[in-house]
Design goal:
UDP N-Acetylglucosamine Acyltransferase, domain 1, 9-stranded parallel beta sheet, 275 residues, 10-stranded mixed beta sheet
Length: 275
């Protein structure tokens, strides 16, 4: 174990590190931190608070994980950060723990958080999400699997970002981002179906129950038909049964619930469903 930990690293005796964990120079690891097998912690990384990190993660120099939330409501509760397996957390990423006792800031598996990303308190990031440089996530944001967020994007608190969506760089996101859609701008608007992303994910494969064609129809109903949202959702129910249509329907329906911020609308001119 001694050969994997740089002698200048400061590790509290109460920290629980698997023997295969590597720790770089001048890293600081607190008493309530747990790190799983094969994780590499770069130099000058800070891990504090009740932070649990899984296996085979790469944490690059200067990252700070598990520090107190930037929330005026925080009163010193022992809250958590929980990170899964196989994540890549690049330089100077900050991930803050949750605000109130029993709450968690959670990151799943196989995610890439590029340099200077900030993940605020109580955020939940699922799996295989890519967040580009200098993205700022406020508190209580939920990002579903396989979403893609471009650089220098600011996301308002309590926003939900749907799976397989794409957010263009330098956008301002103040409402929910529908799954499978391409969103961009300030103010942000749904520009099209996330055609390139869906094709790369294999949605155009004929063996996938024609999911791509169904999503194109769903896009037209939601954003090109002139129907109200509730009318469009009724029409979605008439499409052939498909897990992705069902997920889109449920997501859009939930955006209208109390406590949700509503969905980002479409740009009505120049929008294409089949780029």
């Amino acid at each position: 174990m001694a050969t994997l930990i740089h002698p200048t690293a400061v590790i509290h005796p109460g920290a629980d590190l698997h023997p295969t964990v590597q720790v770089g120079a001048y890293a600081v690891i607190g008493a309530k931190v747990s790190v799983g097998a094969g994780t590499v912690i770069g130099h000058h990384v800070v891990l504090e608070g009740s932070t649990r990190i899984g296996e085979r993660n790469q944490i690059f120099p200067g990252a700070a994980i598990g520090l107190e939330p930037q929330d005026m409501k925080y009163s010193g509760d022992d809250t958590q950060v929980v990170i899964g397996d196989d994540n890549c957390i690049r330089e100077y990423v900050t991930i803050h723990r949750a605000t109130h006792g029993g709450e968690v800031t959670a990151i799943g598996n196989h995610n890439l958080l590029m340099a200077y990303t900030h993940v605020g308190h109580n955020c939940v990031i699922a799996d295989q999400v890519i967040i580009t440089n200098s993205v700022a996530l406020a508190g209580h944001i939920h990002i579903e699997s396989r979403a893609r967020i471009g650089g220098v994007v600011g996301v308002h608190q309590f926003v939900h970002i749907g799976q397989y969506s794409m957010i263009g760089g330098m956008s301002r996101i103040d409402r929910d981002v529908p799954p499978y859609m391409l969103v961009e701008g300030n103010p942000s608007r749904v520009r099209s179906l996330n055609t390139v992303g869906l094709k790369r994910a294999g949605f155009a494969d004929p063996d996938r129950d024609n999911a791509y064609q169904m999503l194109k129809k769903a896009f037209r109903l939601l954003y090109r038909s002139g129907l109200t949202l509730n009318q469009a959702l009724d029409q979605l129910n008439l499409l052939p049964e498909n897990e992705h249509i069902r997920h889109l329907h449920n997501f859009m329906q939930q955006t209208q619930q109390p406590g949700r911020r509503g969905a980002i609308p479409a740009k009505m001119r120049g929008v294409r469903a089949d780029d």
